[in-house]
Every structure is written in C-alpha cells, then in structure tokens.
Design a protein that fits this description.
4 helices; about 120 residues; mainly alpha
Length: about 120
C-alpha cells in the first residue's frame, strides 16, 4: 500500500485516485492480503514435490472453513429418509444384477425370491 500512496502528494489524493477508479482502500487492502496469502501458499507448494494426477495439479482456495458439528435430528430428519430409500433401492438393484450375473433369476431374499 505504501508504494501506490507514494505516487500521490497526500493521503487525500491517494484515496481520491482510488475512488476515481472505483476502488476504496479497504477493498485494495483485502485484495493485497489475498494476493500475499496466495503467493505464500504457492511458495509452500513449490517447496515440496507436488503430486501430479491424471488431471494435473489441483489447488483449492478456501475463504472460510467451518468446523463440522452434529445437527439436531429434527433438522435433518426430512433429508435422511430419501437417502436411506435411495441406498436401499441401489442395494436391491445391485443384488438383482449380481443374481443375473450368477445365472440365477435375479431375485433376492429382499423381494421374496430365492437368493441369487
């Protein structure tokens, strides 16, 4: 922040120059903070031998990390039932396909048939 300010005769001129370009000092300071943090992360990554996958290198930028917590059952009840029903359906489908592959009729104990 000191270098750009040094180009103006005083703080008022510096702030006026920023405002004239649609910026304010807080926005510029936050952008500089993110840029410095990004540079520090990149230096840390470059100092190690990064893992290269088939997809290339992946960097994630996390503005905030929220700690996990246990939610009350009343808040999640409506979301649990569909997930359990979907899982049960997938399990039945997988059992049916496994039965077909094994040469059976594709029926399982769950649907009243003989095990595959």
């Amino acid at each position: 922040m000191a270098e750009p300010r040094g180009r103006c005769p005083d703080d008022g001129a510096s702030l006026g120059d920023l405002a004239g370009n649609g910026l304010d000092e807080a926005v510029l300071a936050e952008a500089l903070k993110r840029e410095l943090l990004f540079d520090a992360v990149m230096r840390q990554v470059a100092s190690r031998r990064p893992h290269l996958s088939e997809m290339g290198f992946h960097l994630l930028w996390c503005e905030k990390i929220h700690r996990g917590r246990t939610l009350p059952f009343t808040k999640v009840r409506s979301r649990i039932r569909p997930l359990l029903e979907e899982r049960a359906g997938r399990n039945c489908q997988n059992a049916f396909i496994a039965g077909l592959k094994a040469g059976g009729r594709g029926r399982s104990k769950a649907d009243g048939g003989t095990p595959a």
